């Protein structure tokens, strides 16, 4: 049996995702598919549009065989840590043959070259990175500039536009997947699939595909008719079912009052303890939190060339879920500690049996069963997922008390 793995968000599952799934299975000649999917919060520092069980149902109904949750502590991180968390968990299953990911370039060679530079960190590259950071540029832009200069020296007549490659988000994620595979010496083989259609944050249609961002924006007024022809019918029915049940989709502005409370009452040292914060950034956050009553305006006024939007949004999400750098370092060293099932079809159940035979990690299907494993590391990581779920449903502003939903929801089985 050949198993293909994906690291995903499916927020929501659209035609681009379906194309990627089909092309990956075709290229790998795969028999089974596993998606490791972020749950209640996302890599860009935003809440998931819909709950994680609805996303899992979409994925299974559209052809994925097994959906596992990428824990919050990695799902809401930079591209490097997001990729590492997904790859490390996938590798620990001990049954995955291929990791397939979408990229704008659709080729492995230039991505592998960049990945090698980032892993080896030659002196010239490090000096250039330091130089560009000293100019006040963001880490990602500084890194891109340093890599471009280094490659121009060692390969003056190279055929690729590395500046363009490093400016595209899916290429960057692909590079980080390759870095992670190399770091843990994984035997999983990478496959790069060229993306077709809109970029992930594009607001327009391209080649008949709409990005997840465009889809979310089109139904912000809760009218699903706008996207009926833009998503697979399985996705449409799932969104319809979700909206009938919960009455609202989730956006970062849904937490406006909570963020205002946090930023106006928090002690400065608590902000200084967050992952990826730099000296002085906490003052900027507090100052803007006092001047504005809208979280989007607060973030707009914090971002600079050095501090991009996604980085600032992640800081707020970590603050929301009480994840600081010391806690993350502790949990990083004992990760992964479990496998959490969100959805499966009949083929996925076969995969779960294979995982049980080949992996030493406990498999959680019913949430309450985590206590039986008596693992301190497992509980510490899982509590962030549980809290993230509670916070997610808090953002829906429901008249019902949507708490402890991890206990009440079971994996979707088709």
From TrEMBL:
Highest rank taxon of the organism: Bacteria
Major localization listed first in the record, in broad terms: cytoplasm
Recorded coiled-coil stretches: none
EC number assigned by the record: 6.3.4.-
Subcellular location: Cytoplasm
Membrane-spanning segments: none
Reaction catalysis annotation: cytidine(34) in elongator tRNA(Met) + acetate + ATP = N(4)-acetylcytidine(34) in elongator tRNA(Met) + AMP + diphosphate
Pfam families the record matches: HIGH_NTase1
Residue positions binding ATP: 7-20, 102, 170, 195
Biological process, per Gene Ontology: tRNA modification
One of the record's GO molecular function terms: transferase activity
Gene3D superfamilies reported for this sequence: HUPs
Alphabetical keyword list: ATP-binding, Cytoplasm, Ligase, Nucleotide-binding, RNA-binding, Transferase, tRNA processing, tRNA-binding
Cellular component terms (Gene Ontology): cytoplasm
Family: Belongs to the TmcAL family.
Job description of the protein: Catalyzes the formation of N(4)-acetylcytidine (ac(4)C) at the wobble position of elongator tRNA(Met), using acetate and ATP as substrates. First activates an acetate ion to form acetyladenylate (Ac-AMP) and then transfers the acetyl group to tRNA to form ac(4)C34.
Protein name, entry field: tRNA(Met) cytidine acetate ligase
Organism, scientific name: Tissierella praeacuta DSM 18095
Gene (name only): tmcAL
